[in-house]
Design goal:
The structure is a homodimer.
Chain A (H helix, E strand, L loop, with lengths): L17 H20 L2 H8 L3 H8 L2 H16 L1 H8 L4 H18 L3 H11 L3 H7 L6 H22 L7 H17 L1 H8 L3 H22 L3
Chain A binds a DNA duplex through helix 3.
Chain lengths: 220, 220
DNA sequence: GTCTATATGTTGATAGAC
DNA sequence: GTCTATCAACATATAGAC
């Protein structure tokens, strides 16, 4: 198989309790190798324990993969959902989603790639995602994501302050522009001839340029 | 491991020569399972041959993976690059990239997920991508992607017909909006409560709404 | 809880008959 | 070219000593 270059070890504090260390190590390994490519032995090595211990705490690779997937969901969605469900004005929602999401992704560079790959390889994970999200039903989740936002957009369209757009497209376009660059990070860096620092700087800029672009598109 | 639901067999014509049948089967399997998750036996089964034959034609999984990756690149990039490098006016470039890319992705639903996962898991593939692209150098590729486009954008900004934007951001924003929905397709479908037909219909609509949105964002 | 040793099953790959 | 049979290398998982 292709040997990956991403071998930087992100060490978990050695004084953390063992279960946490293992979960952190699993998180790191699953993120960059994917579930199918991850090895229990590599997780053990990265956690600094014998690989039998990994099974002692999590029984099987499957359970460990589930735990990591749940944690990844918890990192990716809650902030965005909170902002979109809030009563903040539309312009502020756009700016806050972009800033918060980019901040989070700068610290978790593998997260979008991991989540998208996981969902493509195991589509039934989409169910798991809907159900394990903050203990609400899928319908409830949709209401939180698109309900308040839809009302705001309706009103803004009537007032003539925004062009009409469905809340689903609003969210999809915004999330696309924020997340895609991270999901395709190695591709973007290669094509544009960037190093890590340059990419990071570009994404910092985009905290401002994405909202500007996005809001300009919706100006009547 | 999680059992995937994507078990629909896309059969390659049985009269095609064996090597082609194997490559087609490999393409299908690598696309939906990823390189690490793909099994030589599954490829053989899908090609309707004994799995020893797969090794006879391609020697190793690695070589087969490389062949599939090259083919995937050839499907994803050339059309878009051709449009962006052309002399067509800016508005037309936007519309043509959106339409052509969405058409292609409707037929290759796993392509973006596969490419992004592959590049995240094996970052050195980004090199392979740059080199194996239409036999040009990376610098040449960049010129084709951003050269003509940059000139057009400069001129449009001077004329006051477009707001100023760097060609890199222009392409990144456009590609994000076109590709992300496909890369995150299972997620988008789950959150929005869509079935396959609804998703397809939405993306057909987006051939028009993405260019409209995008061009509105650049109107001064 | 943590280790060593080992069982069990899969997978990529090859040898050799046809 | 295509198949059957088989190998060697891992990877997941468990048993059992400490």
């Amino acid at each position: 198989m292709v040997k990956t270059a991403a071998d930087e070890i992100v060490q978990t504090p050695l004084d953390a309790d063992t279960e946490t260390r293992i979960l952190d190590a699993a998180h790191a390994v699953f993120m960059r190798r994917g579930t199918a490519g991850a090895r229990m032995t590599e997780i053990a090595r990265e956690a600094g324990v014998n690989h039998a211990l990994v099974h002692y705490y999590f029984r099987s690779k499957q359970r460990l993969a589930d735990a990591v997937f749940r944690r990844a969901i918890g990192e990716f969605f809650p902030v965005m959902i909170g902002v979109l469900a809030s009563d903040a004005p539309l312009e502020e929602k756009v700016r806050r989603v972009a800033a918060a999401q980019i901040d989070m992704l700068q610290k978790n560079r593998y997260l979008p790639g991991y989540l998208l790959a996981e969902l493509n390889h195991y589509p039934e994970r989409a169910e798991q995602l809907l159900n394990s999200m903050s203990g609400t039903t899928p319908a409830n989740l949709r209401a939180r994501l698109f309900g308040t936002l839809g009302t705001q957009l309706d009103e803004a369209a009537r007032n003539g302050t925004f062009r009409a757009i469905r809340p689903q497209e609003f969210v999809l376009n915004l999330v696309s522009m924020v997340v895609y660059a991270f999901a395709a990070r190695p591709l973007v860096m290669a094509i544009m001839g960037m190093d890590d620092a340059t990419f990071t700087a570009m994404m910092e800029e985009r905290k401002a340029t994405i909202p500007a672009f996005f809001l300009a598109a919706l100006r009547p």
